[in-house]
Amino acid sequence: MEDGSPSRPSMVKMETAMPMEDEEFEDQLPVMAEKLDMDTFVSELCGGFRLLADQEKGVITSNSLRKNSALLGMEGMSEEESEAMIREGDLNGDGALSESEFCILMVRLSPGMIQEAEAWLEKAVIEELSRSSN
């Protein structure tokens, strides 16, 4: 979109990283990360944050998550589910998700992204050990 916000289809794919209880979603975050350059990928994550955030407070609250998740095809989210998602990503304990907390949560909840991160870490350790032994 021209305003920098993500298109609905790409955000639906991104949000599949946030499964609700008793529901399974295909994890599309690694596919997005692979197909998009880093700036576009981060832009998509930030766009997801803006879609879910309380516009007045500038953070994702349990209420804004419940209300706005329907825009992404996740109708019927319970208060308990939205509060659990907020708790899962709330690193500073303020009861809401900032943009950075949201992005961290999306990556953390993506098994594919975690596997890739582990592979990157292993490669970095091997390279560092190789340099140290030379």
TrEMBL record:
<feature type="domain" description="EF-hand">
    <location>
        <begin position="77"/>
        <end position="112"/>
    </location>
</feature>
<dbReference type="InterPro" id="IPR018247">
    <property type="entry name" value="EF_Hand_1_Ca_BS"/>
</dbReference>
<keyword id="KW-0106">Calcium</keyword>
<dbReference type="InterPro" id="IPR011992">
    <property type="entry name" value="EF-hand-dom_pair"/>
</dbReference>
<dbReference type="InterPro" id="IPR044205">
    <property type="entry name" value="KIC/PBP1/KRP1"/>
</dbReference>
<dbReference type="InterPro" id="IPR002048">
    <property type="entry name" value="EF_hand_dom"/>
</dbReference>
<protein>
    <recommendedName>
        <fullName>EF-hand domain-containing protein</fullName>
    </recommendedName>
</protein>
<dbReference type="GO" id="GO:0005509">
    <property type="term" value="F:calcium ion binding"/>
</dbReference>
<dbReference type="Pfam" id="PF13833">
    <property type="entry name" value="EF-hand_8"/>
</dbReference>
